[in-house]
Write a structure and sequence with these properties.
7 helices; two-stranded parallel ribbon; mainly alpha
C-alpha cells in the first residue's frame, strides 16, 4: 500500500513529531535520575525499514556521530520523497514503521547528546498488543504490553 503525503504526515505527526515535542518539554523538568521510555515497535527496527545495507539513509542512521538534527533532516527528506513519489531510499508501504524507526534514532541521538540530571531516555517495543491499530489481533492485552516500557523505566 502506498500512502499519500497527507497520510504520511499525519502518521509522523502522531508517532514522531508529537512524541519528540513532549519529550523535549519534559526533559528540563524531570527529577534527577528520571526515566523516559518512548514506545517503539518491532517494525521500527533499522534492518526492517532499510533492509539494504548500502542504503545511504541507513548508513547515516548507523553513524556513531548521528545527531538529532540528522534525524530531523532524514524525516524531512522522507516527507519530500513521499510528496515526490520517490521511494528510491525509503519504503513506501509503512510510514508507521518508519516513524518508529526515526523515533528510535532520535532517542539514540538525543541520549548521546547528553541529558541533564542523569535523565535516561530509552525506547521499548511493547509487543503485539490487542488494540485498534492491530485490529485486536495482538496476543497481548494492553496491561501486558505496558510491562516492557514500565520495566525499562525501573
Amino acid at each position: 500500500q502506498c500512502y499519500t503525503s497527507g497520510e504520511s504526515r499525519g502518521i509522523f505527526a502522531t508517532n514522531f513529531t508529537a512524541t519528540i515535542n513532549v519529550t523535549e518539554k519534559i526533559i528540563p523538568v524531570m527529577k534527577r535520575g528520571g526515566r523516559i521510555c518512548q514506545v517503539a515497535s518491532f517494525g521500527g527496527v533499522l534492518s526492517f525499514c532499510f533492509p539494504d545495507n548500502r542504503n545511504p539513509v541507513k548508513q547515516r542512521l548507523l553513524s556513531p556521530s548521528l545527531t538529532v538534527q540528522d534525524v530531523l533532516d532524514i524525516h524531512q527528506e522522507y516527507q519530500a520523497a513521499v510528496k515526490a513519489n520517490d521511494y528510491s531510499h525509503f519504503r513506501k508501504d509503512s510510514p508507521l514503521f518508519l516513524s518508529k524507526c526515526m523515533l528510535i534514532a532520535y532517542s539514540t541521538a538525543r541520549s548521546a547528546a547528553g541529558l541533564p540530571n542523569g535523565v535516561l531516555l530509552n525506547c521499548a517495543n511493547p509487543g503485539y498488543v490487542a488494540t485498534d491499530m492491530s485490529k485486536y489481533k495482538g496476543h497481548l492485552t494492553i496491561d501486558e504490553g505496558a510491562v516492557t516500557p514500565v520495566m525499562v523505566c525501573n
